[in-house]
Amino acid sequence: MLMDVNDIREHLPHRYPFLLVDRVVSLEPGKAIVAFKNVTVNEPFFDGHFPDKPIMPGVLIVEAMAQAAGILGFKTMGKKPADGSIYLFVGADDLRFKRPVVPGDRLQLEAAILAEKRGIWKFDCRASVDGELACSATILCADRKR
């Protein structure tokens, strides 16, 4: 299943400059998602992180993975933010950074559902550039009423 930015905006409440998923190239509800974030030098965070050697902040890489997981969760539940549901990032375990992400990189975001219990979802997430792992984590999200 392919999703462009308009479809993504229907399944995430985030907007510029905090929408960190540009395209979904594969999505199997109940299982996994593959999405991309195109990292450009025009990103507002590069003005301060770091002006002479721009590096995407690690917390934003984690947020991008969580947003991809959020799309997977919404699609799996058959919900959208417009239905009055919000999907909150509530935790990360086993978080590791392996390489910096810099302007010009195409960040591949992958999330697979590990478990769901009482509205709390657990995802195995990875972010990579050109097949090289940049970040991995187990991410927890909670489905709540808006």
Verbal overview:
With about 150 residues, this protein is α+β, with helices and mostly antiparallel strands. The chain has a single domain, classed as Hotdog Thioesterase (Thiol Ester Dehydrase, Chain A). About 20% of the residues lie in helices and about 40% in strands. It is built from 2 helices and 6 strands. The protein has helices spanning about 5-10, 60-75; strands at about 25-30, 30-40, 85-95, 105-115, 120-130, 130-145. It has a 6-stranded antiparallel beta sheet, covered by helices on one side. The longest helix is centred in the middle third of the chain and has 20 residues, at about 60-75. It is globular and about 45 Å long. The protein starts with a helix and ends with a strand. About 30% of the residues are buried. The model has no long low-confidence stretch (mean pLDDT about 95).
SSE order and pairing:
Blueprint (H helix, E strand, L loop, with lengths): L4 H7 L11 E6 L3 E7 L19 H20 L7 E13 L8 E12 L2 E10 L2 E14 L1
Antiparallel strand pairs: 1-2, 2-4, 3-6, 4-5, 5-6
Tag the structure with descriptive keywords.
alpha+beta, 2 helices, single chain, globular, six-stranded antiparallel beta sheet, 146 residues, Thiol Ester Dehydrase, Chain A
Query: SSE order, as H and E?
Result: HEEHEEEE
The DSSP helix count reads 2
What's the architecture in CATH terms? Roll
Which outline best applies?
A: globular
How much helix, percentage-wise, in residues?
10-25%
Largest sheet: 6 strands, antiparallel
Query: CATH H level: which superfamily?
Result: Hotdog Thioesterase
Would you tell me the overall average pLDDT? Answer: 96
Strand order of the largest sheet: 1-2-4-5-6-3
- Please compute the radius of gyration using only Cα atoms: 14 Å
Judged by helices, strands and strand pairing, the structural class is: alpha+beta
CATH top level label: Alpha Beta
Query: How far is it from the N-terminal to the C-terminal residue, by CA?
Result: 27 Å
Number of strands: 6
Low-confidence stretches: none
CATH topology: Thiol Ester Dehydrase, Chain A
**Tally of distinct domains:** 1
Q: Strand percentage, roughly?
A: 35-45%
